Amino acid sequence: MSTTDNLIPDPPRASVPTPSPAPVLPEVGRFDASGLYTQARPVEIVSRGILFSLAAVPLGMAVAVLIWELGFVASISSFVIAGAAAALYTKGATRTPNRGLVPLVLVVLGGVALSFFAVVAADLVDFYNTPQGQSLGYPSVVDFVSANLFTGNVLSGYGSQAVMFVLFAALGVFGTVRRLVRARQA
Fold first, then answer.
1. What is the mean pLDDT of the chain?
2. Any idea what the Cα angle at residue 130 is, between residues 124 and 131, rounded to 5°?
3. Is 90 exposed, middle or buried (0-12, 13-18, 19+ CB in 10 A)?
4. Which of 24, 54, 63, 103 has its CB surrounded by the most CB atoms within 10 Å?
5. Residue pair 154/183 in contact by the 8 Å Cβ criterion
6. In the chain, where are the structural domains located?
7. Residues 6+ apart with CB under 8 A from 103
């Protein structure tokens, strides 16, 4: 070693980054593409669902009148209206109600009210077809029913039935809403 070796500095080195070692990947197995093709959750079409659920109203009215004519408590038809409206809504809206839950409840409540008035109208038709009803002087059954359907003296005779309709409507709506909320959370 000479004395000049310490006097001459080493040449500058280029600062080139050295690549880090490649990471070791875990063993993954076969590629499964089935997760790429899952269907998106269907969009709720509220207006179409409500339109479908409206078909439950005449069904409930017919069931109420039929049950009433057979001599049973017709307010049980509230369950029919609630269940049918929910099923038809789900069919029409393509999924269980989320945004359409309140309008669906309103359809059910409206259907229950119309079912009650259908029972009253059926009794009015039955009364009109008796000799006593014929002697009242109305030209047709339609005139008789439209003149007497909403009068207080006719509706006062249906107080207990109205209470039963409201009670069964509340139970039907509560049960249906509870079932729909559970289905929505699942």
1. 85
2. 135
3. buried
4. 63
5. no
6. 42-185
7. 46, 50
Q: How many CB atoms sit inside 10 A of residue 34's CB?
A: 6
> 94, 47 in Cβ contact below 8 A?
no
Contact of 23 with 74, CB cutoff 8 Å: no
Residue 69 CB coordination number (10 Å) = 13
Q: CB of 124 within 8 A of CB of 144? A: yes
Beta strands in 21-84, from DSSP E residues, in sequence order: none
Distances in whole angstroms, Cα of residue 83 to Cα of each of 135, 160, 175: 42, 24, 9
How far apart are alpha carbons 93 and 170 in whole angstroms? 24
- For residue 72, the 8-state DSSP code is S
> Token pair of 71, please?
């001599």
Model pLDDT for residues 158-171, shown as the tens digit of each residue: 888 888 888 888 88
Instruction: Give tens-digit pLDDT for 49-87.
Output: 999 999 999 999 999 999 999 988 888 888 899 999 999
Under 8 Å between Cβ of 173 and 111: no
AA identity, residue 129:
N
Q: Which two tokens stand for residue 42?
A: 């269907």
Look up residue 62 and give its amino acid: A
Contacts (Cβ under 8 Å, ≥6 apart) of 96: 90, 180, 183, 184
The owner of tokens 């999924």 is 95
Taking CA 91 as the corner, what is the angle to CA 87 and CA 97, rounded to the nearest 5 degrees?
70
